[in-house]
Write a structure and sequence with these properties.
alpha+beta, Beta-Lactamase, five-stranded antiparallel sheet, 27 strands
Length: 773
């Protein structure tokens, strides 16, 4: 209660009362009349002061002992506290009412002022309202006596709005300065005499001076003498009319002496009375732009000359019409640009090519992938049809999609190509009709072209042969010699004529080619491969081999006939006397030896008989013979043995097979020998087998084929197959005369006998006999 009373008393004190209080009844003796007048005067003065303080718009406060002992309503409104709340704040609360960043200054001056030290009577600081908001205050403070004790009286003026406006202005000026400093164009201000009063960084860079060097510098120092007068007149016009000058071209001299081309825009600079006191301007360096414009101008001139003198037509097509065309385009089409622009461009194209050209034009505009270069026909104004080669790319023409076209007249080239095509067509027709093989290979030996005969001779399709290496169809033992021939032709450049080589057909059968090879050259006369012509001499080689074999067999036959006659008589005696001796009663061991002599003599006699058959000393009588019947007779004889040996027989006999002129017995011997040999080969290979026999008519020939699934015939054995006394069987199990005798019989009948085999996969024996006339 004591504190409340004390506070109440403090609140009743008046600023400037020096701590005097009104007298209370009975508390003091009644003053004299003069004192009463003085006190009344003082009271009235204090009342007027209080009235002024309470009515003041400034916040008034008295602080004593770090407590507020007086505050008016204006300060209460400024602080957000009531007067009662202000009078009850503690020293700590009072200190916190000042912004933390300003407390040191405010309370430092407060202490200095109480201590009688010199302190600024006016300053600005920030205070914190009751709601936490921060306000700026202008403070006027002084030291007074209050209640007989020192105190600080302060008057507060809220300058928050002013500060905000000031900060806004500062930020605006900062942004303004930032814009000026960051802009690429130079900004400057000059007085009416043309002296710089302000420049931005860009202006300094343009002229090559520092800002400090430019301030106060007159425009004449960086202006060429011949431009001083025009620039003065331009600025004078702005001064007189007040109208801005837009992008006035001028030349400026940099600090280093180099010249720049600039464009300036100038405005009058006025004071607050509206009087022109100078000029502000924006200057941009257009030196590079002017250079670029000049380069562009020169480039456009070069392009114009190139376009007008180009050897090909250049057109721009937009919206389906020709928008631009060079003189060559008029020469090619016979139309002027005005005539072409009057109609859709497709109307000048050959009817057969319109759809293709229009489709590609639209697809190109859509960005779809299409050939960039293609050919089509146009119809000239005079009706003549010309061929054009078009190279087109999408472009923007006057900010809209268009197509830039380069067209060359290729009519002569097309005519030459057509003539060449016809020539090549005739050339290829000749190649396709010729019976000989024709081929072309690159330097690596890969086929690049073959005719139909080559495909037929090798047994491959054209597609299979193209790209195939010669090593794939040349017999292994001929590859080296073929390479040497090609290498010699490449080295000398001279064609090689008349060399032969062995081929392996797709089906594995051998063949022989008689070839000539010439170098294949490009348009620079460089050898890029080889061309060759080959004649299939397979049949000729077979005939030659058969003739050679026949000659050898004839010679052997003559020798065999003579030998057989010489051996026949002694053998007859040996056999006869040994038969007589065997009838006698002899010792067992002697009789056994004599039996061996008798058997071997008879075997020798059989061989002699075979030699006589081989030599064909006997006269053969020929009649009409049905080969099907001969084969069926042999199969009937062999039926039991084939069945017992698990030999499966498949027969495909042509019922309409014509007859041949021959000796049935001799021909039967041929088929018995072939079939028996096949059976033995299959049984030795895998204990069973399958035999396939077919007959057919091929031209004027009857062909019989006997195929087995035995072990086949090796290439080495194939060469000696019909040689007398050649056998692959053990000694004593075959004379080696069977196939040679067959060869002799078939040859005697005017036919052929040969074998084909893939070693390890069986063999086929073929007997061909002429049809009876």
């Amino acid at each position: 209660m004591a504190k409340q009373k004390k506070g109440k008393e403090a609140s009743e004190k008046k600023p400037g009362s020096k701590g005097k209080r009104s007298s209370s009844p009975g508390s003091q003796p009644k003053p004299p009349e003069r004192d009463q007048q003085l006190q009344e005067t003082l009271r009235q003065s204090e009342e007027r002061y209080r009235t002024l303080a309470e009515q003041s718009l400034m916040g008034l406060v008295v602080v004593q002992d770090f407590r507020i002992v007086y505050a008016n309503r204006a300060y209460a409104q400024i602080s957000g506290y009531s007067v009662e709340e202000l009078l009850s704040v503690t020293p700590e609360q009072l200190q916190a009412m000042v912004h933390p960043e300003d407390q040191a200054v405010v309370w430092g001056r407060f202490r200095d002022r109480l201590a009688g030290k010199a302190a600024l009577p006016r300053y600005e600081c920030r205070t914190i309202r009751k709601d936490g908001t921060v306000n700026w205050m202008e403070v006027h403070a002084s030291r007074i006596e209050y209640g007989g004790k020192p105190a600080i009286q302060a008057a507060y003026i809220d300058i928050t709005d002013y500060k905000r406006a000031e900060e806004g202005l500062r930020q605006s000026e900062e942004r303004y300065r930032t814009v000026l400093d960051e802009m690429e164009e130079g900004y400057y201000e000059v007085d009416v005499a043309g002296n710089f009063t302000f420049v931005n960084d860009a202006m300094s860079r343009i002229l090559g001076y520092s800002r400090h060097e430019l301030i106060g510098k007159n425009y004449r120092t960086y202006t060429p003498e011949e431009q001083v007068k025009p620039i003065f007149e331009a600025y004078n016009r702005v001064y007189r009319t007040g109208e801005p000058l837009k992008w006035f071209p001028m030349t400026e001299i940099r600090k280093d002496g180099t010249r720049l081309l600039v464009e300036d825009s100038v405005l009058p600079l006025r004071n607050d009375k509206g009087e022109v006191v100078g000029f502000r301007g924006v200057s941009r360096n257009v030196t590079e732009r002017k250079k670029a414009e000049e380069a562009l101008k020169q480039s456009e001139e070069r392009h114009r000359q190139l376009t007008e003198n180009a050897g090909e037509a250049i057109l721009v097509i937009q919206d389906g019409r020709v928008k631009f065309m060079n003189p060559k385009g008029s020469e090619l089409s016979g139309y002027s640009i005005e005539e072409l622009a009057s109609k859709p461009f497709v109307e000048f194209i050959h009817p057969e090519d319109i759809d293709m050209v229009a489709d590609r034009y639209m697809r190109r505009l859509k960005g779809e992938p299409i050939p960039q270069v293609y050919d089509f026909r146009i119809i000239r104004k005079d009706g003549v049809i010309r061929w054009g080669e078009l190279n087109a790319v999408p472009i923007s023409w006057e900010y809209r999609p268009a197509v830039l076209c380069f067209m060359s007249d290729i009519t002569e080239r097309k005519e030459a190509e057509e003539a060449l095509r016809q020539s090549e067509e005739r050339y290829r027709a000749i190649l396709e009709r010729m019976q000989d093989s024709y081929f072309e290979v690159d330097l690596a030996g890969n086929l690049t072209f073959v005719n139909s005969s080559a495909c037929r001779h090798l047994g491959y399709s054209r597609e299979e042969l193209i790209g195939m290496s010669y090593k794939n169809f040349v017999a292994e033992d001929y590859i080296k010699s073929v390479f040497q021939v090609f290498n010699e032709v490449y080295r000398t450049g001279v064609a090689n004529k008349g060399f032969h080589w062995k081929t392996i057909r797709k089906d594995g059968s051998p063949g022989f080619i008689d070839s000539s090879v010439a170098p294949l050259r490009n348009d620079r006369d460089q050898i890029i491969g080889f061309s060759g012509v080959g004649r299939d001499i397979t049949e000729r080689r077979k005939m030659e081999e058969q003739l050679m074999l026949a000659d050898r067999l004839a010679s052997i036959g003559q020798l065999a006939a003579g030998t057989a006659h010489e051996l026949n008589n002694p053998l007859t005696a040996v056999i006869g006397f040994s038969d007589l001796l065997l009838e006698r009663d002899l010792a067992p061991d002697v009789k056994a030896d004599l039996c061996t002599v008798n058997q071997e003599a008879k075997r020798a006699a059989a061989i002699v008989k075979g030699l006589l058959a081989f030599a064909r000393e006997q006269k053969i009588e020929k009649t009409l013979v049905n080969i099907n019947s001969v084969i069926q007779g042999v199969l009937q004889e062999r039926y039991y043995e084939q069945r017992a040996s698990n030999i499966e027989v498949g027969v495909q006999l042509d019922p309409s097979l014509p007859q041949v002129m021959g000796n049935g017995t001799q021909l039967q011997k041929v088929f018995v020998t072939i079939i028996t040999n096949a059976e033995q080969a299959m049984l030795e290979a895998h204990g069973r087998g399958k035999l396939t026999i077919t007959t057919e008519q091929v031209g004027d020939t009857v062909r019989a084929s006997i195929t087995d699934d035995g072990p086949g015939i090796s290439p080495d054995n194939m060469k000696r197959l019909f040689t007398p006394f050649f056998t692959t069987r053990e000694v004593g199990k075959g004379s080696g005369l069977g196939l040679s005798v067959c060869h002799g019989i078939v040859t005697e009948h005017g036919g052929k006998i040969y074998a084909t085999s893939e070693f390890g996969k069986g063999a086929t024996f073929v007997v061909e006999l002429p049809v009876s006339k």
